[in-house]
């Protein structure tokens, strides 16, 4: 039951001693009816103008300043700290978790400056970030990967020198090396080293008679997907499947061809 209480005139006079909008502690409070004692004009208890109770400017309940409901600072809606839309935090690879599986060092008839590429395989059970890894050789080539994103477990990833299909022979490239990367693949002998700081993740070497044929990739046998199995030349051979638009042979971004006795090089 609603009751009206009649206050004595002295009580009303006492309340009137305080200016409108100022509490009895002297702290201004808003005049819109919230009881929090804060100084804003909305009806919640925080000091910002939105309707939730945290101090950021979005309307979700977490304390960060983006509009999603997680508490990390990125703009996606999952709870991890990376910017992709899956729910795991991509991690960097450990030793042997990325495996170099295929190398196009001597593309033909297209220009090496656009059509060189190599392929890595994610041998781990997790999505692996490529950013921060160093690509190098035993000479002076060295480039720290930036902006490549990540590779899914069990997937192949192609790093190349151009994403332009009219220049690179039609290979689909997952990450394009910048023009000034300085990372190139010699036609005679060269190496690819993938490192995280001082930790070597994987390394492969080819000699001046490998790969033997222009326009063919140098391809690890389909049965080998580990970082020691690709050492030496035993399990490598020329790619045999046609890809792209220039008649070159290899399997960029996909499982490799098997090395058979009909291949020009290794016979596992
Ligand atoms: Ca090189
Ligand atoms: Ca080359
Ligand atoms: Ca290796
Ligand atoms: Ca392949």
Task: Please describe the topology of this protein.
Blueprint: H1 9-15, E1 98-104, H2 112-115, E2 117-122, E3 128-129, E4 134-136, E5 142-144, E6 150-151, E7 156-160, E8 175-176, E9 190-196, E10 199-206, E11 218-220, E12 236-238, E13 242-243, E14 248-249
Bound molecules: calcium ion (4 copies).
Q: What is the N-to-C succession of helices and strands?
A: HEHEEEEEEEEEEEEE
How far is the first residue's CA from the last residue's CA? Answer: 93 Å
| CATH architecture label of the largest domain | Sandwich
Counting helices, strands and paired strands, the structural category is mainly beta
Record the strand order, biggest sheet: 8-7-2-1-11-12
* Count of DSSP strands: 14
> How many structural domains?
2
Number of helices: 2
Description of the molecule:
The chain is mainly beta and 268 residues long. The protein has helices at residues 9-15, 112-115; strands at 98-104, 117-122, 128-129, 134-136, 142-144, 150-151, 156-160, 175-176, 190-196, 199-206, 218-220, 236-238, 242-243, 248-249. The chain folds into 2 domains: 21-67, no CATH class; 98-249, Immunoglobulin-like. Helix content is 4%, strand content 21%. The longest helix is centred in the first third of the chain and has 7 residues, at 9-15.
